[in-house]
Every structure is written in C-alpha cells, then in structure tokens.
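Handoff note, outgoing to incoming analyst
You'll be picking up this chain. Sequence as last confirmed:
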Amino acid sequence: MKIENNAVIEMHYTLTNKTGEQLDSSVGQQPLAYLHGAGNIIPGLENALTGKSAGDKLTVTIEPEDAYGTRDDEKIQVVGKEMFTGIDNMEVGMQFQADSSAGPAIVTIAKIDGDEITIDGNHPLADEQLTFDVEVIEVRPATETELEHGHIHGEACDHGE
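Most recent structure output, in case you need it:
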C-alpha cells in the first residue's frame, strides 16, 4: 500500500539540523506512528512521504516554512511574574502550556528580569532547516475510529478504539 491520506504510517526517523546535530531519533525505540493527511506531522515531511511504501528509505531536507515556521516577534511578550502562580522556582528554558488566540500553545521562558518574565510562543525549532532520515516500516488503512478522532489508536492512545 502506498502512503496516502487516511493511511496509518509507522516509521523510524533521525532528525538533524543544518549543522548535522542530531535533534531526535526513533531508532532503537518504538517507531513513530501517525495518521497521514491529518496534520499530525510537519507538512514538509508529510508531503515527502506521500506515495512511499513500507520498506522505502529517504532523506529529506525541509525548510522552516514547511516545518515549524519562521520566528514571529509577535509571539514574544513580557508578562508579570504573577501569571505563574504556584511556581516558585522559574528558570529560563522552562516550558508551559498557555491559552492563545489560536488555542493551546507552548511558551518558553526566554528571560527573567525581576518580576518581568519574557515568554516566547515560537516553536523551539522555528527558523530551523531540518533533515529527516526516514525508513517507512508499515502502511495500513486507518480504522473508522482513527479517522473520526483524527489520530491513530494504539498503546499511546488514552481513549482506546
């Protein structure tokens, strides 16, 4: 079966940045599984996988616009320390889920200056050119439940089939 929308894909990957530094890998672990066409992975990788089959291997370099986007200065803001009630020890690099106009978002503490906290809503890999070395392990049709929910079901799913 070829990879197309509404197929479940299992793949191993190794992700590197422009300088060749390894950022992530599934090799030696469970393969990454996702529902193709549902926006579960970055668009550039999803497009590169379309039409591939189990057993195919590929290396694809993805520009920021088709990965995690380009940095947007409007996603950086200074908020008061009181926005972090119940958190005693804040450090640069800590991440939190926050509500944004586009729904839930992850923000990272970029700077702490007294009671002023600079948060950054950009993805940590924004502006990064990414290279994926991929091996497609399995391609199968999605179940009706997976299509209904927009993601695959299996061990990692918390609401079953």
